[in-house]
Amino acid sequence: MADPMNVFQVAGRAMSAQLIRMNTTASNLANVGGTTGSAESAYKTMKPVFRTSFDAASGLATVDVEKIVTAGEAPTKVYDPNNPLADKDGNIYQAAVDESRELVDMMETARSYQNNVEVMNTAKQLTIDTLKLGR
Question: What pTM does this model have?
């Protein structure tokens, strides 16, 4: 049987989940405006799917990334017969990444990550203060 989770493990797992979220958001932003010759090969927005994990031994819950899925709009078809990537009909396909939404996600992710850093710092300080009481 696994040891009960402590607050440091809970915050650490939450920080790991937010790091994955930040990486997918960065990948989405890096592909804004990307073009290709087919709808199938066009970049699709990635989003992590989170799952709550409950530890009955400690009564604490945390989050894990269950999987990463593609989400969002279909690629935008643009008629541009002079583009070297154009298909036989003269169309190119642009990644449908909503840059504003991704920037908001990035700010929200950074705040969530920082909140978990604060949880760890507070728990550390409380542990140190508790140990000082024993002197």
Answer: 0.83
Q: Which residues contact 1 (CB under 8 A, 6 or more apart)?
A: 57
Name residue 97's amino acid.
Answer: V
Tell me the Cα Rg of the chain.
Answer: 22
* Per-residue pLDDT reduced to its tens digit, 100-111: 999 999 999 999
Q: Please give the full DSSP string across 58-109, using - where no structure is assigned.
A: TTEEEEEEEEEEEESPPPEEEE-TTSTT--TTSEEEE----HHHHHHHHHHH
How far apart are alpha carbons 51 and 46 in whole angstroms?
16
Print burial letters for 13-38: b (CB count within 10 Å at least 16), e (below 16): bbbbbbeebbebbeebeebeeebbbe
